[in-house]
């Protein structure tokens, strides 16, 4: 296994290449090596791990355009499959969801972990909220009418038939479960949409992932 870094369009890319690469790849959209026990296990099985450091863009249109250009570069440079497996942790869920929404042809599967799906659920006046508003060209006054959240685009997302795994804790105080992961899970129940969901009762935003990563590994491999 070896690691490589390079700059692409002004942003740092980090790649972990397994000893036995099989073309499959995991694109973790934020927090590359945090709670990465599933990625470590999959890398040993031949999955390449990919990260592109466009933090603090919150899955905006600009972020997705940067991701599209990077996607084409990385599949060519490392001879990867045409469809990525996207891992979206916390606000990384915005990137993973929106990339899949706009480029389903480049997306094989999506795994969301305690994801931000409704930016309106963040308290106004925080640094994160202020950065996000600026990135989306919004103000506190007009943001209540904003319809560009993942939670606003579930019908279109699921129309693409992309397999989805979601893992989240019900006691998440940072990214409110009922307005984010819980709302997506409820939508799927109401609309008979099959997903793989692991709800961690009385667990907060951390720790992400699972101690036993079998479910995550099987989701990626099947």
Mind explaining what this structure looks like?
The protein has an eight-stranded mixed β-sheet, sandwiched between helices. The two termini are 24 Å apart. The chain has a domain at 2-145: Alpha/Beta hydrolase fold, catalytic domain (Rossmann fold). The chain has helices at 37-44, 61-78, 92-102, 127-135, 154-159, 181-190, 214-221; strands at residues 2-8, 11-17, 25-28, 48-52, 84-89, 107-113, 164-169, 196-200. It contains seven helices and eight strands, in the order E-E-E-H-E-H-E-H-E-H-H-E-H-E-H. With 222 residues, it is α/β, with parallel strands linked by helices. The radius of gyration is 17 Å and the shape is globular. The model has no long low-confidence stretch (mean pLDDT 95).
Beta-strand fraction estimate = 15-25%
Radius of gyration: 17 Å
Inertia-based shape: globular
Catalogue the unreliable spans.
none
| Total count of helical runs of at least 4 residues | 7
**Level-1 CATH class name of the domain at 2-145:** Alpha Beta
What secondary-structure arrangement, pairings included, does this model have?
Elements: E1 2-8, E2 11-17, E3 25-28, H1 37-44, E4 48-52, H2 61-78, E5 84-89, H3 92-102, E6 107-113, H4 127-135, H5 154-159, E7 164-169, H6 181-190, E8 196-200, H7 214-221
Parallel strand pairs: 3-4, 3-5, 5-6, 6-7, 7-8
Antiparallel strand pairs: 1-2, 2-4
Helix pairs in contact: 2-3
């Amino acid at each position: 296994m070896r690691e490589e870094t390079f700059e692409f369009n002004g942003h740092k890319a980090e790649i972990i290449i397994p000893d036995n690469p099989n073309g499959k790849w995991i694109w973790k959209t934020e927090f590359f090596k945090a709670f990465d026990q599933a990625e470590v296990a999959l890398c040993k099985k031949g999955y390449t791990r990919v990260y592109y450091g466009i933090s603090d863009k919150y899955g905006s249109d600009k972020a997705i355009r940067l991701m599209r250009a990077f996607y084409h570069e990385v599949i060519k440079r490392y001879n990867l499959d045409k469809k990525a497996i996207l891992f979206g942790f916390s606000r990384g869920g915005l990137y993973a969801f929106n990339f899949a929404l706009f480029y389903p042809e480049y997306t094989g599967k999506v795994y969301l972990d305690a994801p931000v799906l409704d930016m309106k659920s963040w308290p106004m006046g925080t640094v994160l909220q202020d950065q996000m508003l600026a990135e989306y060209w919004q103000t506190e006054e007009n943001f209540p009418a904003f319809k560009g959240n993942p939670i606003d685009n579930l019908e279109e997302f699921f129309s693409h038939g992309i397999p989805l795994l979601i893992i989240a804790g019900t006691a998440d105080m940072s990214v409110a479960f009922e307005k984010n992961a819980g709302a997506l899970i409820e939508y799927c129940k109401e609309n008979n949409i099959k997903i793989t969901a692991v709800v961690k009762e009385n667990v907060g935003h951390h720790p992400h992932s699972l101690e036993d990563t079998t479910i995550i590994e099987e989701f990626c491999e099947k």
